[in-house]
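RECORD TYPE: protein structure
NAME: Flagellar hook protein FlgE
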Amino acid sequence: MSFYTSLNGLKNAQTELSVIANNLANAETTGFKKSRINFADIVSGTASSNPKLVKGIGSAVQSIDQNFSLGPTQQTGAALDLAINGEGFFTKVSPVTGKTFYTRNGNFGMDGAGYITDVQGNRLQVLPVDANGNVTSSTPQDAQAPATNGAGAELMSVTVKADGAMIAAYADGTVTELGKVALASFVSPPGLLQIGNQDWQATGISGPASYGQPGAARFGTMLSGSLEQSNVDIAEEMVGLITAQRYFQANAKAIDTATQLSQTIINLRT
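PREDICTED:
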């Protein structure tokens, strides 16, 4: 029994090492959120067992939780590099599949058709506004800057204000508000499904997304010309790495000791 108990410990230690290694590998990944592993004990007993004789038979991985604490902000100077100074996620839609993704990575640019996109081509979503800049609908839409305005003047630049207003400036000096950056919130963010590229998708655990504009409710303001960096603390992860290594070594030693005991019993002579 001790072999299997320690074997569970070895597998759990290997999983913990994998989680820590992934955190360290993404210490410089923009918008990355670190993970933490939680263990649960396993016991051998039934409802009729004497509670004073119930013994543990190892542990199991209970969950791998994501930590959505804010990471440090780095200034880049690029107008379409965005960071959220608070809670929420940027919302993106794939023009190919129509799937919706959520991210804290605000590294955006503009494609040839004027859409504001990430490096994969997913389109940033904004909330539509009226002529006075008031949000008219809670349903997000693609952020797109027309190449020319009604007077035929060419697009010069697109900037984003602290309240999420996306402003397109044209050669004739006119400006047009394209909408306000749509921020998504969830009842349970740790329930979001990681799909890579610092993107998440909603699940039944996270609940559906509810949308708002920067500065409203619990949403923070928008920082233009900045990017949120990974929230991985390298010193903390290194301490966890040492602890996980000792955990692995201790379980390996327990297996070695059990092997020696078994060998001693087998070698007994009558």
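COMMENT: The CA atoms of residues 6 and 251 lie 5 Å apart.
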